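Predict structure. Chain length: 256.
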Amino acid sequence: MEMPTDMDRRQFLAASGVGLAATMAGCTGSPLSSDGDDPGAESDGNESTDSGEITVSAGGQVDAEPDRAVVDIGVEATGESAEAVTDELATGADELRETFDELGVPEENVEEGRYRVHPTRAREAEGFEGSHSFEVTLSDVDRVGEVIDAAIAAGADNVGRVNFSLQEETRAALRKDAIDAALANADDEAAHIADNRGVDLAGTTNVTTGDVQVHPVREAYTGADAAEDAAAPPTEIEADPVSVNADVTVTYSFDG
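Prediction complete.
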């Protein structure tokens, strides 16, 4: 039997080492592929929580008795010439101004309204016609009837609608109340949605408010004939409350 030489032993060991390394590499990959779970991914899943947002749009409204009234009062005239109509309107306007002054209406509360002089529109008539109106602002709405009656007695031919509204300081206060009402409605709606979805509200992330709207009340005056009668009772015009509306959009965060 021929004994292996040193060269033969080295070749045998080298061949045996390559085979061993290949076998170990295959074993190293085997446990990872058979498990199929990523330790890193499992850790991230355990630390995450369910969260999100709920966005609600809601409105709020408050009502208040009006504390400001604007009355449209004017005179009308007809004549054969534009000059004659203009003169008659000027006389009537002066009488109205004197009446407003006697009633204690501040001059700044009497604004010039529409002034028109034009050929008569009636086909069968010739000449001119015109009108001159004033916008009278009253801070005491209970005096509206008194002012109308006095103006008609002074020669007013036309009384338009009466606009009941709110003074600026009242608007500012009610604006906040309307926003508060809108936010309260938004909170209620968001709480209902969260309860329905089985989640807990965690806080507010965003709030947007829209324009706050004040809705004046317009009342028509139809008692000119009665006001011309000295025996007629004083004119009374009652107005419904003025409404102030606000809209909000609120975004809430939640945890589930």
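Summary: Residues 7 and 13 are 10 Å apart (CA to CA).
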